[in-house]
Amino acid sequence: MKTQILIAALFFTGLVTAQQKKDSLKVNSIETVNIKKQVFKKQGDRLVYDVAASPIAKGTNTFNLLKQTPMISSIDGKTLKILGKSDAVIYINNKKTNMDSEALIEMLKSTPSEDIQKIEVITVPGSEFQVESKEGVINIVMKKNKNNGYNGTMKMQNEQAYYNNPNAGGSFNFRQGKWSGNSNFRMGSWTDRQKYTLSNGDSTFRNDSYGYNDDPNKNLGGGFNVDYEISKNQSLGLSYNMRYNKSFNSILDMTNYQNGILMDRTVNNEDAQTRNHSFNLNYEIKTDSLGSKLTSNVSYLWFNRDKVSFNESFPLYIDKDKKEEDQAKYSALRQSVPQIINNYAANIDYLKKTSKGATWLMGISYNHTNTDNDTRQDRLENNEFVIDTKQTNHFIYKENILGLYINYERKLTEKLSGKVGARYEMTRSNGEILEKTSFERNYNNILPYLNLNYAVNSDHNLSYTFSSRVRRPRFWELNPSRTYFTPNNYTQNNPFVLAAKFYNQELNYMYKNAFYANLSFNMVEDAAASDLLPLQGTSTKPKRDEDGKIMYDEHGNMIMETTRFLRYIRTNYGKNRELSLTLGMNKSWFKDIWTTNYSVNLGYVTYSGGVWEDPTSQLGEYETEELEPYIVDVKNYNMSATLNNTIRLSSKKDWFLGVNYFFGSKVAMEGGTIGVRQSVDISLKKIIGDWTILAEANDLFNQGYYRVNGIQPNGKYNNITNFNYPRLISIGVTYNFGNQKLKKAREMKSANDAVKSRT
Predict the structure, then answer these.
(1) Which of 24, 657, 664, 716 keeps 20 to 30 A from 198, CA to CA?
(2) Res 9 pLDDT > 70
(3) What is the pLDDT of residues 203-220, one digit of tens each?
(4) Where does the record place it (predicted)?
(5) Helices (H), 393-549
(6) How far apart are CA 633 and CA 87, in angstroms?
(7) For 655-659, which contacts have Cβ atoms below 8 Å and span 24 or more sequence positions?
């Protein structure tokens, strides 16, 4: 309404004084001002994307919406990254999601975007968040309508990559009086197809392997969340999530050459099943009218993975200069690698808000984890399988973590606000390979946090954040088992890897809530490789006959044989430093017809250290091993760019075209240099009432090769090419039913959230 109309109404009612009449002459010429709601803005320690005000929010799902959110990207459609480098931890209404990563992605893909109020991106999380290393947090804030009723979503999708992969899922939400709840389910099947080229050696020896891996999967998952409002200030909730994955008849087939000569063929058949069940009981009480509250959680997580494999090696080369008994022979091994994880956890948080606008957050958490890994490996001798005592390991690992944390946040001046906190973690852990060796790891960490935010004016905002974190090894990384490509080329887990310490700093600038610059510097001590390190060497041991007996020459001396090996192992090597600058823009053009989300990341990284011994080596009697030192000395500049475009094709807002492009330059890592990567994705969306039809083509030009080239100062090299057939075409149909303004049940934080990411 114009100012003139308002003043005329006041005159008519006789409420305008003489002074007001005089003042009205000054404002009579003021034109109507249309205030446009800010879609993207900085608030304290986070950047907020107002989904309800965005022109692209309707008719999509939460995962696709996240891909269009500033600072968030997804290249493979399975994971989310912040600023192109940090792993994302998903929170809903400030509470961490209670499900494994694959189930979480499916849940996001089945949640309609209309349920979302805003998305908060926290690039450096505070002390209250249970995150590790340099992980960032994505907090999804749901709409808060309180209407009784129900709603839901049904979705069917079919993907065509190398194989056809169908899947379906749905969700259901209800609210009636004091009761509310939601549930979801998903099911599907897919087969991963990967093509490998492995090459390693030096100027005197070359080993090349070529092959493929087919991994068929069937998946079933789901869960529910029930919440009861005991009173106006108290709530009690229970949540349960499960996932079952079956992968039978996975085949890895590799053909191996030495110095250009065809030597043998290795075939590995694998069957695996994974079961995951988690429960969480939550209680919350509001302690005053300012928003203070006490929250407590008790959680239980059970994870079980059974894997059995059968590995065969078929000789294809005959050396004419050797006797028949000295020729290479058929060999085989079979392996069973079960893993069971039990986790019990509890936490209590107290949020205190003061009348002066300050906020205190205090909490305590406890996690107890027990893992049981009973690996058995048998090798073929004289047409019978006998136990391989070196690779048969019953590994028991126990871990107890006590955490205490406190935060204080307040507005210091009209323009300056701050948040300071600290987290204390006491870790007590021990591992034992029964009848072989054991170790203890007891350490304490004080992890400070600081955030300062300065709003220069309505157009300019500047903030600084410091945080320190610990990255503990994932539980499966500790299990001392192997996965074979060939008999002498395999990955090796390491129970002796140490936790790494991270120190993260960030300076962020935002202009007009549309353009941003993010400068970050990260330091890591006791760093472990982000990928596996290739350790090359030779193993010398007595030669044995078909019965497994040691062979001797005519003089009574043992006949020794030497073989080369390549182990991919995760272990600590030293330290790294990373300096990164991200420039980004999120803006709509031509009356919201064209929406752009662009970002460019420039980085400089250094890695230094080395590996001089293999802590996982297990030598038998009369065996010796020589390991080539692996030196880490990397300095590298790199660049990546993400360009996301959404174009509205009709005035009715029912046709949308998406065109996305990603480019990543060569980037050097601890294990070698990753080659150039790029992809072009196209999507077309049609909204028909409560129905949404979405057609997508990912990596249209099949450019998603993963190439790693690594060379050591001594001339040893290791090169890997992995092609996973990234181009896929998918068609999905989604139907939303019921009351779409229904508020979802209260999402609950699980006490064992920090453990789930390590399974």
Answers:
(1) 664
(2) no
(3) 999 999 999 999 999 999
(4) Cell outer membrane
(5) 475-478
(6) 25
(7) 655/684, 655/685, 655/686, 655/687, 656/56, 656/59, 656/683, 656/684, 656/685, 657/682, 657/683, 657/684, 657/685, 658/682, 658/683, 658/684, 658/685
Looking from the CA of 161 toward its CB, the CA atoms found within 13 Å total 20
CB 746 within 8 Å of CB 283: no
CATH of the domain at 231: 2.40.170.20
Tally Cβ neighbours within 10 Å of residue 146: 9
pLDDT recorded at residue 103 = 64
CA-CA-CA-CA torsion sign (748, 752, 753, 759): negative
13 shares its domain with 68 = no
Contacts of 445 (CB under 8 A, 6+ apart): 423, 424, 425, 427, 468, 470, 501
Q: What values do phi and psi take at 758, rounded to 5?
A: -100, 0
Measured CA to CA, the distance from residue 753 to residue 758 in angstroms comes to: 10
Which percentage of the chain shows pLDDT scores above 70? 89
| pLDDT given for residue 423 in this prediction | 95
214 and 342 belong to one structural domain = yes
126 & 252 share domain: yes
Q: So what's the pLDDT on residue 323?
A: 77
| Count: domains in the chain | 2
Quote the pTM value: 0.85
Burial class, 332, CB count within 10 angstroms (exposed 0-12 / middle 13-18 / buried 19+):
middle
- DSSP type of residue 504: E
Task: Provide the CB-side half-sphere exposure for 673 (13 A, CA).
Answer: 14
**397: which residues sit within 8 A by CB, 6+ positions away?**
369, 370, 371, 373, 429, 430, 431, 432, 475, 478, 495
pLDDT band at 434 (very low <50, low <70, confident <90, very high): very high
Instruction: Pull the structure tokens for residue 464.
Output: 């600084």
Mean pLDDT of the chain: 86
- Choose among 228, 238, 225: nearest CA to 184: 225
Q: Residue 657 in contact with residue 671, Cβ under 8 Å?
A: no
| Same-domain pairing of 55 and 16 | no
Same domain, 172 and 232: yes
Distance CA 190, CA 113 (A): 26
- Looking at the predicted structure, is the pLDDT value of residue 13 above 60? no
C-alpha span between 717 and 713 (Å, rounded): 9
**Pairwise pLDDT comparison (100 vs 462), residue with the higher score:** 462
> What DSSP string describes 372-411?
EEEEEEEEEETTEEEE-TTT-EEEEEEEEEEEEEEEEEEE
Whether residues 87 and 19 fall in one domain:
no
User: So what's the pLDDT on residue 117?
Assistant: 83
Report which residue type is found at 426.
M
pLDDT given for residue 532 in this prediction: 87
Structure tokens at 162: 């190398």
Same domain, yes or no: 130 and 15: no
Tell me, what's the pLDDT at 705? Answer: 81
As a whole number of angstroms, the distance between CA 715 and CA 16 comes to 90
CB 151 within 8 A of CB 736: yes
CA angle 285, 291, 296 (to 5 degrees): 30
Based on the fold, state whether residues 16 and 60 are members of the same structural domain: no
**Which residues form the domain of 691?**
35-756
pLDDT in tens, 466-504: 999 999 988 888 988 998 888 889 999 999 999 999 999
549-567 pLDDT per residue, tens: 888 888 888 989 899 999 9
- Pull the structure tokens for residue 114: 């209309």
Distance between CA atoms of residues 4 and 685, nearest Å: 44
Q: Residue 425 forms beta bridges with which residues?
A: 403, 445
Strand pairing partners for 353? Answer: 359
Give residues with Cβ within 8 angstroms of 298, minimum separation 6: 280, 281, 345, 346, 751
In this prediction, residue 336 carries a pLDDT of 96
